[in-house]
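ARCHIVE CARD
CATEGORY: sequence design from structure
SOURCE FIELD: tokenized fold
FIELD CONTENT:
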């Protein structure tokens, strides 16, 4: 965002785009959930180890890369941060295709965001592969006014048949652990066959983001302040 308030989509160029492959496996992760649950903050904390309480709601999609080492393997994670607004569902649903892992995030102080996980789960099952690993994340545990108990969320995750963890991007609690958990699950389920390429979805995502940015009126680009 520049001083005029105009939002621009930037796409970083990484060495993995060259012919030389500097990793053993590439996993595409998609982070979903309602607007305001802290998806972007979680991503920034994990990818860049940064946090800001001045953030702009994601418009369409954004992504980051991070390389980690696990089980003597070099794993490159391509992590997509999707908009939680209903109006962007058509755009963001395309990112489920080819996803290796889905991270569903809710705000532990928001009953609505927790209840909406059911809707997100249905959408994931509609568009993503059956082999896609999933993780439920309860964010903002540092924030006062928690209404979704750990026990309730754990019971819900058990019914869905997926793992669960609580996090705080503000205090950097369990963010690393959340991504390591789903990465470990992916290594266990996909093994050495997961060196997939996400280039097709990346290219289509860039085009979708450009179309979305060009069509977005200025009043949609609002800055909000709060916990992540």
């Amino acid at each position: 965002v520049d001083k005029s308030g105009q939002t621009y989509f930037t796409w970083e160029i990484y060495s993995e785009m060259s012919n030389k492959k500097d990793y053993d496996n590439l996993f595409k992760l998609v982070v979903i959930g309602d607007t305001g649950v802290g998806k972007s903050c979680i991503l920034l904390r994990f990818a860049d180890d940064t946090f800001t309480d001045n953030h702009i709601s994601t418009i369409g999609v954004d992504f980051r890369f991070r390389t980690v080492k696990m089980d003597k393997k070099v794993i490159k994670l391509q992590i997509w941060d999707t908009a939680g607004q209903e109006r962007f569902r058509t755009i963001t649903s395309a990112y489920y295709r080819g996803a290796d892992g889905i991270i569903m995030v809710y705000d532990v102080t928001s009953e609505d965001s927790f209840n909406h996980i059911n809707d997100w789960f249905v959408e994931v099952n509609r568009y993503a592969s059956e082999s896609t690993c999933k993780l439920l994340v309860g964010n903002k545990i540092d924030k006062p006014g928690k209404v979704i108990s750990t026990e309730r969320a754990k019971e819900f995750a058990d019914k869905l048949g997926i793992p669960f963890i609580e996090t705080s991007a503000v205090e950097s609690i369990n963010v690393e652990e959340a991504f390591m958990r789903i990465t470990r699950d992916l290594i266990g389920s996909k093994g050495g066959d997961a060196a997939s390429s996400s280039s097709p979805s990346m290219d289509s995502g860039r085009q979708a983001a450009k179309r979305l940015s060009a069509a977005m009126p200025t009043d949609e680009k609002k800055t909000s302040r709060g916990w992540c």
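CARD ANNOTATION: Residues 22-206 form a domain with the Rossmann fold fold (CATH 3.40.50.300). The beta strands are 25-33, 54-56, 61-70, 73-82, 101-107, 133-139, 164-166, 223-225.
SHELF: design records, drawer C
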